[in-house]
Amino acid sequence: MHIKQLRHFIAAVQAGNLAKAAEVIHLTPSALSTSLTKLEEELDVKLLIRGRSGVQTTYAGEVFLKGAFSIVKQLDDLQAAVLGANDSPAGNVRLGLPFGTNNAVAAFLFKALLHDYPGINLLIEEGNTTNLERSFENGLFDLMISYDVVDKMDRKSELLYVEQMYFLGPYDSALDGVDEIEAQELEKYPVVLSAGTHSLRTTIERFALNNGINFNYLIDFQSAHASLKIVQEGLAYTIAPWCLISDHAKTKLISSREIVNPLMEREAYLVSSREKSPSSAVLAIIDVLKSAIQHAIATDKLRAKSMLQIDKD
C-alpha cells in the first residue's frame, strides 16, 4: 500500500465520481480505477460501490476513509511543519464551503493566498451542507462553513454572519425595482426546493412552521442549480440566499425579492475541531476567510449582517 493510493481513495470519496476525482488529481479515470482496484485487492476487502451515479463507500470503506485521511493528514502536517520553519505558514488546508458561499469568497481567497501565503495549498470542496457535514465528521476538513449549527463537544463554532433569503421567479420587468415580498404571499406560488435535511430546506420548513405558511411544493430537486434553471424557464419558483443567485439576478435571468414580515434568515458558522490545535496555515486561512466574507458583503456578493468583530488597530 502506498500513500498515493490513500490520496486516490480520498479523492474518489470526496468527488463521489471517478471522472471528477481523476480530473482533480490529474489522472485518467482508468488509471484511478486501476489504483483503487489494486488497493482493494491488497486489503482483500471492497471499499467502494461503483455505479452509474458515482461511487459510494461500503462500511469497510467508511472505516478505511477515516484512517486514510488521518495518515495523509499527519504526513501533510509534518511537511507543513518543516516548510513552515521559517515562520511562513505552509501546507495543505482543507475547507468545506456551501454552494453560493464559494462564489462569494473564492476570488478574494485566491488573491490573498497568491500575495500573502504562497506556501499554503488551500483545498476547497464545495457542496450541500449534508455532504459537507459528512465529510467533516469523517475528518476530511480542517474548516467548514455551515448553517444553524448544533453545538457538539468536539467542535468549535463561530458565528460569521446572518444572511437573508430571497424569493426567486422567472425574470419579469414589471418587478424591476420591487425588492421585497411579504412572507404570507409565498403560499400563492408553486415552489421547487432541495429535498431532505439540507440546511436551506430546514431553514424554510422551520420558517413555515413558525409563521403558519403552507408552501405549495411542486417537486423536490437535489440540485440547487437545477432548481434555478427551472425558475429561469418559468416553470416554478424557489428560495435561495443572494450569494447563490446574485449573477442570475444582476443579469436579469431571474427576478429576486427579499422575504420580509418577517425576514427569512439563517446563521452561518465557521466550524473547526476542538480535538486538535490548528496549524499556522489553518489560522492564516481563518483570518483570510473572515476578510473575504467582509469583502463579499461590502461588494454585494453576499447579502448578510456580519457578526465578525473588526480589529480597528
Q: What is the CATH T-level topology of the domain at 161-266?
A: D-Maltodextrin-Binding Protein, domain 2
Rg over C-alpha atoms, rounded to the nearest angstrom? 21 Å
How many helices does DSSP assign? 10
What does the overall shape look like? globular
Distance between the termini: 51 Å
- Helix and strand string, N-terminal first? HHHEEHEHEHEEEEHEHEHEEHE
The helix fraction, in percent, is 40-55%
Q: What proportion of the residues form beta strands (DSSP E)?
A: 25-35%
Structural class, from helix and strand content? alpha/beta
Low-confidence stretches: none
CATH level-1 class of the domain at 161-266: Alpha Beta
Number of DSSP strand runs = 13
CATH architecture of the domain at 161-266: 3-Layer(aba) Sandwich
The residue-averaged pLDDT reads 89
Sheet with most strands: 9 strands, mixed
Give a structural overview.
35% of the residues are buried. The protein starts with a helix and ends in a 7-residue tail after the last strand. Among the domains are: 1-85, Winged helix-like DNA-binding domain superfamily/Winged helix DNA-binding domain (Arc Repressor Mutant, subunit A), CATH 1.10.10.10; 161-266, D-Maltodextrin-Binding Protein, domain 2 (3-Layer(aba) Sandwich). It has helices at residues 3-15, 18-24, 29-43, 59-83, 101-116, 129-137, 199-211, 224-232, 242-250, 280-298; strands spanning 48-51, 54-57, 91-98, 120-127, 143-147, 155-170, 180-182, 190-193, 216-220, 238-241, 254-260, 265-273, 304-306. The protein is globular. Helix 1 crosses helix 3 (29-43) and helix 5 (101-116) packs across helix 10. A hairpin with a 2-residue loop joins strand 1 and strand 2 (54-57). It is built from ten helices and 13 strands.
